[in-house]
Amino acid sequence: MPGKQPEPRPAAAVASEHDTKDSLGGLTPEELQQGQEAALALEERMALGAQTLVHAEVEQLYQEVRPLGQGRFGRVVLVTHCQKGASTGTGTTMALKQLPKTSTSLRSFLYEFCVGLSLGTHPAIVAAYGIGIESADSYSFLTEPILHGDLIAFIQPKVGLTPSEAAQRCAAQLASALEHIHALGLVYRDLKPENVLVCDPTCQHVKLADFGHTRPRGTLLRLAGPPIPYTAPELCALPPLPEGLPIQPALDAWALGVLVFCLLTGYFPWDQPLEDTDPFYEDFLVWRASRQAQDRPQPWFGLAPAADALLWELLDPHPRRRSPVGAVRGYLGQPWRQQDEEASGLKEGRQ
Ligand SMILES: Nc1ncnc2c1ncn2[C@@H]1O[C@H](COP(=O)(O)OP(=O)(O)OP(=O)(O)O)[C@@H](O)[C@H]1O
């Protein structure tokens, strides 16, 4: 979650100031409208959310069971309701995310709280409960608790997530969650294993959490710090408008491509998608340009052709040519790792 930051501006506001098509930074009128509608709906929810905030100290309402996690901005704890069953140990547990007022504005808090609510129910998205609390020093809200930690703990360095079925299941669930977010006119913008929570010990089910960076499509944004592997290249380039880049779901498709690569190999494909700075990214661009097998970068050696093809689609450096997150569905059930490809070949050979 972003804490106290300058207010991002919607592309619509900038468009009316410049009023040429280029002033939309490449956004079509339909995309602009979808983003505007999402922004209006969110503003309305935030106004309602502000009116219905409970004013109390968290300890008066909930009993802490144990800490669940700590982010840059928020502390997340497992709690039970003080009045219902807490003393007998039968109370329903919930996750309470507490954001100190020193680092989080009321608007940023309401944004994250209300985005979570506006996403409704989706099997791969952490469900938000409609309770927001303002205390003397913090803001808090409640969600369903997910008790097996985050995906990072399941990705073995140099190996990835095993077995391969788990990696495919995980990719399919995340693609579905992101598609749901995009259909609502929003862009998630923070896909990384730390924001994917795991529901069971064998990683059968995962859920997307932390909607502090989610914004309506078309919001103008600039890169706030150094890029990470998940940052799409268009965000690293000079923005098309002085106010920034109008954000698109393609940012999430890129991040999903990087995450799938990590799930399959246990490596990042590059540190930063910066030509002339990152040799791994440069090798990737050379391979894309030549399409020659001999140019395939070393970290890709363990991938089967289906995974190559999927990642080729999701990791297209040109956002307009990049496939949407739903592309994952077209590759499910095929081998994604070379070793699976070989095993299935052996099986066929025996039959
Ligand atoms: N609903 C939940 N159930 C269980 N654990 C959770 C839940 N929500 C968050 N956590 C844990 O708390 C950690 C921090 O939460 P979160 O990512 O929402 O905080 P943040 O301050 O917004 O993080 P960031 O540093 O990514 O901005 C997560 O990595 C996760 O381990």
Automatic annotation (TrEMBL):
Belongs to the protein kinase superfamily. It comes from the Eukaryota. InterPro entries: Kinase-like_dom_sf (IPR011009), Prot_kinase_dom (IPR000719), Protein_kinase_ATP_BS (IPR017441), Ser/Thr_kinase_AS (IPR008271). Residues 62-337 form the Protein kinase domain. Residues 1-28 are annotated as: Disordered. Its EC number is 2.7.11.1. ATP binds at residue 97. This is Serine/threonine-protein kinase SBK2. Keywords: ATP-binding, Kinase, Nucleotide-binding, Serine/threonine-protein kinase, Transferase. It catalyses: L-threonyl-[protein] + ATP = O-phospho-L-threonyl-[protein] + ADP + H(+); L-seryl-[protein] + ATP = O-phospho-L-seryl-[protein] + ADP + H(+). It is an enzyme of class 2 (transferase). The gene is SBK2. The keyword Transferase applies. It holds the Pfam family Pkinase.
